[in-house]
Amino acid sequence: MIKKSIFVVEDEEDILELLRYNLTREGYAVSTAAKGEEAVKEIPRKLPDLILLDLMLPGLDGLEVCRALKKNPKTAGIPIIMVTAKGEESDVVAGLELGADDYIPKPFSMKVLIARIRTVLRRKREPAAEKNASIRIHDIEINPGRHEVLIQNEPVEMTFSELRILHFLASRPGWVMTREQIVDAIRGEDYAVTDRAVDVQIVGIRRKLGPRADYIETVRGVGYRFKEQE
Ligand code: CA
Same domain for 43 and 147? Predict the structure, then answer.
């Protein structure tokens, strides 16, 4: 089997070495850069399978690196996991909206990080469901074409926006979606939903999901995520 490659961008030497050691031990081929400028130059040459990107970097910071990589067609498709410090929620939101796939706050456990990496690498092989494709996850079935939501085969009444938002989140289980991404996903339909209104819609969806309300997780300061199927 070909080794998956991970490119780590991290300016703290201790953390960089720890990551290099552990990821190598997990069987990944690891390349690194300590500076944003270097990452932007090296990543298009290496074309890794995944990028682990510290946001707080001297010089070109993580968000700028993310923006540059997502703008370059050669690197736009490479998944990025942002490594963030406490209190960087607004940067997390910005990064997700730039196209980063996930984030992990420092300090992190190596075990959790490796699980995230595996999830993100796996996800890439499964494109999200089409806008009108029906989804079955946990014990819920969402069928936008028929405007139907079934929980354990029992229909649940939902408005158009509720169904669209639920479908969007459920089509990417485990992904954190910002309010802006949710708005974008359902824009262009017959109704308008603002950032703030997303929260109101989520309240409505959760109420209708009843005991399954916790399928939609709030990611504080960032957005919402549909619970992954175990
Ligand atoms: Ca740093």
Answer: no
- Residue 160 and residue 114 share a domain: no
- CA–centroid distance, 35 to ligand 1, in Å, is 9
Q: Which residues constitute the domain of residue 201?
A: 129-226
Query: 174 alpha carbon to ligand 1 midpoint, in Å?
Result: 26
Could you report the per-residue pLDDT of 23-73, keeping only the tens digit for each?
Answer: 999 999 999 999 999 999 999 999 999 999 999 999 999 999 999 999 999
Calculate how far, in angstroms, residue 175's C-alpha sits from the geometric centre of ligand 1: 24
Strand 50-54 to strand 5-9: parallel, antiparallel, or no bridges (unpaired)? parallel
81 CA to centre of ligand 1 in angstroms: 14
pLDDT tens-place string over residues 169-196:
999 898 999 999 998 888 765 566 677 7
Give the N- to C-terminal CA distance of the chain in Å, as an integer.
Answer: 26
Overall domain count for the chain: 2
Could you tell me which of 105, 101, 98, 15 has the C-alpha nearest to residue 64?
98
162 and 111 assigned to the same domain: no
Centre of ligand 1 to C-alpha 57, Å, is 5
Instruction: Round to whole Å and give the CA distance between 217 and 176.
Output: 9
Give me ligand 1 centre to Cα 222, in Å.
20
CB 101 within 8 Å of CB 77:
no
Residue 188 has a pLDDT of 65
CA of 180 to the centre of ligand 1 (A): 27
The pTM of the full predicted model, rounded to 2 decimals, is 0.84
